[in-house]
């Protein structure tokens, strides 16, 4: 695919700028043969938070997709999932995600645990390159988007990816029930 342009962001194929990707992200993109299917763009890390990115680059909230790590315990076993939710919605953590993980209570992973288990920078966590076996819960509307902005594993860049590419990632499950409009 060529033409990674969304709002004020213009990216290049990930193959051209591997230096802008966290190691697990680059490894996964390479293994999945997706280095040409997603774009990457360098940004100022000071504006990597969703609202700042939206303002700086003239993006719509549904085009900015956050990857949040959610966990819970069942019979002494920790169960973790990644939830991909656009900024225009809020993940149903203690409803949909809790039931999907089959835990009594689900909550966002603490900062240190999220960084350690993902191998990525906080504020840049992406679904691409997370540990194998974690479910990737994807908002169904995001799966249908032609192009969205997600993290790259580091705060100094963003990935531009078609929703269909995200929906085809290993472990991905698209659902209209994952999130509700804010």
From TrEMBL:
Q: Which GO terms describe its molecular function?
A: aminoacyl-tRNA deacylase activity
Q: Which InterPro entries match?
A: YbaK/aa-tRNA-synt-asso_dom_sf, YbaK/aa-tRNA-synth-assoc-dom
**Matches recorded under SUPFAM superfamilies:** YbaK/ProRS associated domain
The record, for Pfam families, names: tRNA_edit (PF04073)
- Any idea where the YbaK/aminoacyl-tRNA synthetase-associated domain is? 45-159
Give the domain of life: Bacteria
- What is the protein's name according to its record? Prolyl-tRNA editing enzyme YbaK/EbsC (Cys-tRNA(Pro) deacylase)
Q: What is the lineage of its organism?
A: Bacteria, Bacillati, Actinomycetota, Actinomycetes, Micrococcales
